[in-house]
Amino acid sequence: MAITGSLAVQGNVLNWVADHRRHHAFSDREGDPHSPWLFGTSPWAVTKGFLHAHMMWFFDRDETNHRRFIPDLLADRHIVRASKAFGVWVTISLLLPALLGGLISWSWAGVLTGFFWGGLVRLAICNHVTWSINSICHMVGERPFRSRDRSRNFWPLAIFSMGESWHNLHHADPTCARHGVLPGQIDISARVIWIFERLGWAYDVRWPTPQRLARLSGAA
Ligand SMILES: [Zn+2]
Ligand SMILES: [Zn+2]
Fold first, then answer.
1. What is the number of structural domains in the chain?
2. Residue 109 sits in the same domain as residue 2
3. What is the span of the domain harbouring residue 16?
4. For position 218, what pLDDT does the model report?
5. For position 71, what pLDDT does the model report?
6. Which of 81, 99, 115, 169 is most deeply buried (CB count within 10 A of its CB)?
7. Are residues 70 and 170 located together in one domain of the fold?
8. From the CA of 214, how far away is ligand 2's center (Å)?
9. Which ligand is the nearest neighbour of the Cα of 174?
10. Could you say which ligand is closest to the alpha carbon of residue 151?
11. CA 22 to ligand 1 center in whole angstroms
12. What is the pLDDT along the chain (220 residues), one digit of tens a residue?
């Protein structure tokens, strides 16, 4: 899973998890690595906040303290190795589609086409969807559940983000395996976890229960 995730080229596993946990710890407050609400609420501040949360934070990031946020991962030598080899996964992520394009069409045009669509375009779309969770899903959408931050459910991205855009529930109940808990909320990631659970690869999975949801819903 660590290697597969690394193919999305969003930084190495250790940094990714550390930033993600810090986002939950300080969500939309000072210390959040990518909140759109750090600069104020004037039109200019919100525009700046959107760009910061969407992608600028990644290029101007302050390192998250690993010993504080991911001591469990630092103690896992497999994860540390997968994280250190990040450059290898990036290379594979970019070159494998080019190689496949070349082999399938047996032409240099196929190499270029594979590299462009399977490498660059795929990464651009994947990253913009992920970044939209940090920007749009903390700015636009519904807040059916109570959370300490400004996270929101933004339905237009449900399919593309594989359920991640039901972001309000994710912040209200971060350990819940399903983010799209209301009727009609498609959540592909939850289905993947469900399949892994059936295969015995995932265990102790926390699924939503009516009692849990009742506790989480309330004032927006
Ligand atoms: Zn999260
Ligand atoms: Zn968030």
1. 2
2. yes
3. 1-139
4. 64
5. 98
6. 169
7. no
8. 21
9. 1
10. 2
11. 10
12. 999 999 999 999 999 999 999 999 999 999 999 999 999 999 999 999 999 999 999 888 889 999 999 999 999 999 999 999 999 999 999 999 999 999 999 999 999 999 999 999 999 999 999 999 999 999 999 999 999 999 999 999 999 999 999 999 999 999 999 999 999 999 999 999 999 999 999 999 999 999 889 989 864 4
Of the three residues 100, 121, 139, the one that is the final residue of a domain is 139
Interacting residues of 68 by C-beta distance below 8 A, sequence separation 6+: none
Do 213 and 104 share a domain, yes or no?
no
CA of 157 from ligand 2 middle (Å) equals: 14
Ligand closest to the CA atom of residue 132: 2
List C-alpha distances in Å: 193 to 172, 188, 198, 203: 19, 9, 9, 9
**Ligand 1 centre distance from Cα of residue 199 (Å):** 24
The ligand placed nearest to the CA atom of residue 27 is 2
| CA–centroid distance, residue 98 to ligand 1 (Å) | 32
> How many whole angstroms from 24 Cα to the centroid of ligand 2?
7
